[in-house]
């Protein structure tokens, strides 16, 4: 076998591999000898079939199998012998000429194919002891724990019917019928609907007009649907609602005690506080972790500058660019709205893709040298988390990870990266700094997932993306659910 390097430009390599026809024929004859005693051909006793006849019957199919095996396995062997690692799956090219291919299968022509790839760049790992990071730590106050518990407890709050007028915070039970231009519309009717006044669950103006009503009252109110209301036939329209008030109930006081804990499925108030405190600390810890990781990546980015494989950068850029355009489309914006142009944005995100690829290679090398491993148990837990997020789709997800090349690697990669970060934290200087919740949660324009000095177009905070229409009929007077608060303020399940 001959291996001829035909291209060595930067990280790009191209090899021409030639296996003489006589060598291919010799391999084919070895295979024929192996199957000679096993094949059954009419007119011949077992093991007595002439090799020439076997070759005539099975030669081409055996040669085709040999070609496939060689093309599949040889590139890896060749790269190993050369001491190179390919950044992506090497591209294999063979003759497309049918006559030439037939000659190869008949051992009348040499097997030739090319292997094109980009090598993983070689670089020396640098001393990381000079890296210094500040780890922001929030001390969770008792008041914050109690506030969170009370928000959670709203779902367990009880109400008691009262006489007199409804006030904000009271729950009213109503029947209503909505009309536009005097005609009832689909989804605008409900009976025994319960609404806590001041909760802002319904469209603007609806709840406010129910303050002061009493059980037994009948009232018609007028409201205007928001211009961005999901039901297009109602968006921006003025509507009337005929309302019958069936009950007015006052909210019972919420107290953090064992009784409340029992309603929430726990044995004591102390246990409830322990769990909620742990959730808040975990939420803050997640933000702290991301900020620390960003500091590490920024300093590693300054330490390492080397050429990155173009194909890896292309793939990373396409992922970023697809997300950016999706964000713009969902926000109804253009690059001009973000005070940039598509060309400028492409250049910025190309730099970001190069940074991500470079840092990925650095972290991979650090992890390999440190002996970082991802265990089977960790992979199983990660897969279980994927299944938990998509109930009802477990089989499809399992089939995807079982049958899709590279799918398992997509589970392993983030686990490996976090373990490398843990390793780095044991090697670098870490200084803890007490900060307020507001300081910790402050938006960082220099986030790792944004190009330097430029905020990602149409990127919103996670909280702003969390808006969702409540699970009611689209034409109900109920409005969109309020945007979820930051992670530290979200109610615990």
In summary, what is this structure?
The chain has 493 residues and is of the alpha+beta class. The chain is built from 13 helices and eleven strands. The protein has three domains: 117 residues, 2-Layer Sandwich (Alpha-Beta Plaits), CATH 3.30.70.1050; 93 residues, Chitinase A, domain 3, CATH 3.10.50; 164 residues, Trigger factor, domain 2 (Orthogonal Bundle).
Distance between the termini: 64 Å
Per DSSP, the total helix count is 13
Q: Give a short account of the largest sheet.
A: 5 strands, antiparallel
CATH architecture of the largest domain: Orthogonal Bundle
Report the count of strand segments. 11
**Name of the CATH class of the largest domain:** Mainly Alpha
User: How helix-rich are the residues, as a percent range?
Assistant: 40-55%
Supply the helix-strand structural class: alpha+beta
Superfamily (CATH H level) name of the largest domain = Trigger factor, C-terminal domain
Under CATH, the topology of the largest domain is which?
Trigger factor, domain 2
């Amino acid at each position: 076998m001959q291996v001829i390097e035909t291209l060595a430009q930067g990280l790009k390599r191209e090899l021409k591999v030639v296996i003489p026809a006589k060598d291919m024929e010799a391999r084919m004859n070895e295979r024929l000898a192996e199957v000679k005693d096993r094949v059954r051909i009419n007119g011949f006793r077992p093991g007595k079939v002439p090799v020439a006849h076997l070759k005539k019957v099975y030669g081409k199919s055996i040669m085709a199998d040999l070609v496939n095996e060689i093309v599949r396995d040889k590139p890896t062997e060749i790269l190993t012998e050369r001491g190179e690692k390919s950044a992506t799956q090497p591209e294999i090219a063979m003759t497309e000429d049918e006559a030439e291919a037939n000659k190869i299968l008949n051992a009348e022509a040499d097997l030739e194919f090319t292997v094109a790839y980009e090598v993983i760049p070689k670089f020396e790992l640098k001393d990381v002891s000079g890296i210094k990071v500040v780890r922001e730590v929030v001390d969770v106050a008792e008041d914050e724990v109690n506030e969170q518990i009370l928000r959670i407890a709203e779902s367990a709050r009880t109400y008691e019917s009262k006489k007199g007028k409804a006030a904000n915070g009271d729950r009213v039970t109503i029947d209503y019928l909505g009309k536009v231009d005097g005609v009832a519309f689909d989804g605008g009717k409900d009976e025994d609907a319960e609404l806590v006044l001041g909760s802002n669950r319904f469209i603007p103006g609806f709840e406010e007009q129910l303050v002061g009503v009493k059980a037994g009252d009948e009232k018609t109110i007028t409201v205007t649907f928001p211009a961005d209301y999901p039901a297009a036939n109602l968006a921006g329209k003025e509507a009337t609602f005929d309302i019958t008030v069936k009950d007015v109930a006052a909210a019972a006081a919420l107290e953090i005690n064992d009784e409340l804990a029992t309603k929430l499925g726990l044995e004591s108030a102390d246990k409830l506080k322990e769990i909620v405190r742990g959730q808040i600390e975990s939420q803050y810890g997640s933000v702290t972790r991301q900020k620390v990781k960003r500091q590490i990546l920024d300093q590693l980015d300054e330490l390492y500058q080397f050429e990155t494989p173009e194909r890896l950068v292309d793939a990373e850029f396409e992922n970023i660019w697809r997300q950016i355009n999706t964000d713009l489309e969902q926000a109804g914006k253009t690059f001009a709205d973000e005070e940039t142009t598509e060309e400028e944005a492409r250049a910025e995100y190309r730099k970001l893709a190069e940074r991500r690829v470079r840092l990925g290679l650095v972290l991979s090398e650090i992890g390999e040298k440190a002996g970082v491993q991802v265990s089977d148990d960790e992979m199983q837990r990660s897969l279980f988390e994927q299944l938990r997020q998509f109930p009802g789709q477990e089989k499809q997800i399992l089939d995807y990870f079982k049958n899709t090349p590279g799918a398992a690697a997509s589970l392993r990669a983030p686990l490996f990266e976090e373990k490398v970060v843990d390793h780095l934290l044991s090697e670098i200087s870490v200084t803890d700094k007490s900060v307020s919740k507001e300081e910790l949660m402050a938006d960082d324009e220099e986030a790792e997932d944004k190009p330097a000095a430029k905020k990602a177009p149409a990127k919103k905070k996670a909280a702003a993306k969390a808006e969702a229409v409540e699970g009611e009929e689209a034409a109900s007077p109920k409005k969109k659910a309020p945007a979820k608060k930051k992670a530290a303020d979200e109610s615990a399940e």
